[in-house]
Write a structure and sequence with these properties.
single chain, alpha/beta, Rossmann fold, 6 helices, 9 strands
Length: 181
């Protein structure tokens, strides 16, 4: 957790029973609307990664873009979007992952990285970990090396962050929520 973790967590809104009964949705909109909180969020990532010599920030469609782009700017490295299927215009590679009910797919431009590029993989939230693992596989297939996976929120009770660690990746989250918070 970052030095601002408790503050960031306090700004995130929990919306009970959305999008369905029994789900506590973690809404980052208030965090983005609060300029001080948003700066502290980006600063949390900058302080963690400023000395890691990253080549690129790869961020997952779409909320990952919100944090990945300003972080890439601040760190002076490139920004690479990992998109939902059918959203990239050039030659792509894709990875399918399992959802609670069905499957989904993410894509990356086939020329997104050079061999052994050091990549930080970002999204807004880790739940079951499927999207993050699919994106990490894409990065490796393009020759990149995932230095760490990073997110604003971890929901550890859903098991995603542990799955990501079990796959050999480091996980950093600014804050985490349990189901009863």
């Amino acid at each position: 957790m970052s030095i601002y973790g408790d503050y960031i967590k306090s700004v995130i809104r929990t919306v009970p029973d959305w999008p369905e009964q029994g789900v506590n949705f973690r809404d980052i909109t208030p965090l983005l609307q609060n300029s001080s909180a948003f700066r502290k969020l980006i600063d949390s990532f900058v302080h963690r990664y400023q000395d890691m010599n990253l080549d690129a920030i790869a961020s997952i469609d779409a909320r990952g873009f919100i944090i990945g782009a300003p972080l890439a700017y601040e760190l002076g490295c490139s920004f690479v979007p990992v998109r939902k299927k059918g959203k990239l215009p050039f030659k792509t590679i894709s990875e399918t992952y399992k959802l609670e009910y069905g499957h989904s797919e993410v894509e990356l431009h086939s020329d997104a990285f050079h061999q052994d590029d050091r990549i930080l993989l970002m999204d807004d939230l880790i739940a079951t970990g499927g999207t993050m693992l699919a994106a990490a596989n894409l990065i490796q297939r393009c020759g990149g090396h995932v230095v760490e996976t990073a997110t604003i929120i971890d929901l550890p009770e859903l098991g995603g962050s542990q799955k990501i660690r079990d796959a050999g990746y480091s996980v950093f989250a600014v804050c985490s929520f349990t189901e009863d918070e």
